[in-house]
Amino acid sequence: MLNESLTLPSGLVVPNRIAKAAMTENLADADNQPTGRHERLYRRWAEGGSGLLVTGNLMVDRRYLERSRNIVADRHLDVVRLSRVRQAAGQVPMIAQLNHPGRQTNRFIARTPVAPSASGAVPMMGLFGKPRALTAEEIEAIVAGFGTASALCEQAGLDGVQVHAAHGYLLAQFLSPHVNRRTDRWGGDVAGRAHALLAAVRAARSATGDGFTVSVKLNSSDFRHGGFTEDDAEEVVRLLVDEGIDLIEVSGGTYESPALFGIGLEGAGSKKEGSTKEGSTGEGPSTVKEAYFAAFAQRARRAAPGVPIMLTGGIRTRAAMQTLLGGGAVDLIGLARPLAIDPDLPRALLAGSDGVDLPSYTLPTVAGMAGESEWYETQIRRLGAGRDVDPQLHAIRAASGFVTGELVRGLREQGARRRLADRP
Q: What's the Cα-to-Cα distance from 232 to each of 238, 281, 311, 373, 399, rounded to whole Å?
């Protein structure tokens, strides 16, 4: 089934069932514009055989970035340069992930990040400041930013966008009762907390033409007490169906509860070979010792019978991919980190290869997560520079490079970003 094509409701034809999921690239220039490094990177991934390419997050507000060198898709975006990135991918379908990090904006970029409600800082090595609550007018402007970004992506020739509502970023913060304590129309019950996401989807749809794909990345759960639950997620899926969404990608976790890295999951997959932990595909006794969020994919399928489901998180072997697709709950297999170290993996999987083993890390949880994340980001930068990956790179060295780079670039360019954001 990996070799079968898939047609989305928008009409976009995905030639096979392997999708390159979004990963932070951090390759933009000092003005947060696309560069030749993006072109080399996406040419490399396109040549690797993926049926769909989802970009790393493009920011909708340059004052609040996930990384200092994210591309920003606002009115200052150089559409011609983004179109060159699209052209580098050739005939492979490509959609742009659109995002606002909210309270997950590090303190080097913004001393005071924003969130649905005022709350404590994200507890991660002191990297994040205490956020202030957004005003209703600011929320409306952010929603409009998703529409602007979508229109610019369409102008650049991309096939669609993915509205990021997972991993603890702003739209996921709105969905979470742990973070969103608002009592106006942007908070309250699940429908109220989903209002920002639905408004962003509508903005993307209204700003683009027929045939342009609008998709959403959604957490199955925040994996924390008092947070966004699977019951909440199923209700949101139903709301997205009513909006005519073209694709839903299922993931999970936040920086505080990093299930997206397989940390702290009960009964979910493990990256370590030989683990006895198993994920569930809903097909009775499971043979899939991976696929962190496979159980929720079954619920999403029941809630959205006519909408394709993409599953990302911990999927590593061809056997697991075939089982997930064969079970009927999953239509696309999302691969992220494996493609940072082996961009040719999709082509190999389609030809019958078994999968890929990822490096393991023994650093303490928080430091290990930061080092591991930056390890893969460093490999992406190497691919963007036209170089081979470096499997011997130490995680501590990668993590220190992240802190140093964000400190220097973030603080140095903070004022310039704000001045440009305020310019007509």
A: 10, 20, 18, 28, 34
404-415 tens-digit pLDDT: 778 888 888 888
Assigned domain for 349 exists? yes
| Pairwise CA distance, residues 246 & 216, whole Å | 8
Cα separation, 188 vs 141, whole angstroms: 21
- The answer to the question of residue 359 being in a domain is yes
Single pTM value for the model: 0.91
**Residue 266 CA: distances (Å) to CA of 114, 166, 241, 279, 285:** 31, 19, 29, 9, 16
Residue appearing with tokens 């007018």: 137
6: phi then psi, degrees, rounded to nearest 5: -140, 130
Reduced DSSP (H G I as helix, E B as strand, rest coil) percent helix, strand, coil of the chain, to 5: 40, 10, 50
* Residue 98: CATH number of its domain: 3.20.20.70
- Contact of 411 with 66, CB cutoff 8 Å: no
| 1 in any annotated domain | no
The answer on pLDDT for 284 being more than 80 is no
Report the alpha-carbon distance of residue 249 to residue 222 in Å, rounded: 15
pLDDT class for 267, splitting at 50, 70, 90?
very low
The domain total for the chain is: 1
Its domain, for residue 126, covers 6-422
Which pLDDT score is estimated for 404?
Answer: 77
Give the residue among 374, 362, 369 at the shortest CA–CA distance from 399: 374
Beta strands in 110-207 (DSSP E): 114-115, 132-133, 160-165
Task: Establish if 219 belongs to a structural domain.
Answer: yes
Q: Is 152 helix (H, G, I), strand (E, B) or coil?
A: helix
Q: What is the model's pLDDT at position 335?
A: 96
Give pLDDT, residue 96. Answer: 98
Q: Which residues of 280-289 are buried (b: 16+ CB within 10 A; e: fewer)?
A: bbbbeebebb
